[in-house]
Write a structure and sequence with these properties.
Elements (H helix, E strand, L loop, with lengths): L2 H9 L4 E2 H9 L10 H13 L3 E6 L7 E6 L1 H12 L3 H4 L5 H7 L6 H27 L11 H38 L1
Antiparallel strand pairs: 1-3, 2-3
Helix pairs in contact: 2-3, 7-8
């Protein structure tokens, strides 16, 4: 995925400011794609120059002016082309710094590695809780999910997050158990 396409997808729900996009992003895409606010604004500028979105400056009296973005027909076409133009093989993400650290763990300090594994486990537990909150709040979500079939796709994304986080927790537990056994042998 590219951040550009995530932004285009969110704009299919309706026009939004950069601030509103970030709020929606943090309640949806954040669970499988990370981005800083500055990245969102940079991508909005890029996709506006490409003609994938248009913007309207809104002048406000008692608040700062705002810029509202709307997906264009070209943007919708780009999103559909992106959605239909990938193979599963191309989407495999084989970069995992935690696994790389474990792979070379014998070179480093075992206490540090165990601490990182415990932190990794904790992060995944928090991630699971966040996903539960998102799923529970799906019906009350700020963005209107247009159709029940659309909600189904959101749920599939959330389920992927559940499975991944649970697998990460199980893996961290197994690594910690192996390290504890190894420590006992030394």
């Amino acid at each position: 995925m590219s951040l550009k396409h995530g932004i285009l997808g969110l704009l299919t729900y309706g026009p939004m400011t950069g601030y509103e996009l970030m709020k929606v992003f943090n309640k949806s895409l954040k669970f499988f794609w990370s981005a800083q606010t500055s990245q969102i604004y940079r991508e909005l500028d890029t996709i506006e120059k490409k003609g994938w979105v248009t913007s309207e400056h809104i002048i406000q009296k008692d608040k700062p002016n705002k810029k509202v973005f709307t997906i264009s027909n070209e943007g919708k076409s780009e999103l559909v082309n992106w959605l239909n133009g990938h193979s599963a093989k191309k989407m495999m993400n084989l970069r995992d710094s935690m696994t790389m650290r474990i792979f070379f763990g014998s070179i480093g300090d075992m206490k540090v590695l165990k601490g990182e594994l415990m932190e990794y486990r904790c992060i995944n537990e928090h991630f699971l809780e966040s996903l539960k909150n998102v799923e529970e709040g799906l019906d009350k979500s700020e963005q209107s999910i247009r159709e029940s079939s659309e909600k189904l796709y959101w749920i599939m994304g959330i389920k992927r997050g559940y499975i991944t986080a649970k697998a990460n927790i199980e893996w961290a537990d197994e690594c910690l158990e192996l390290l504890n056994k190894m420590k006992g042998e030394q």
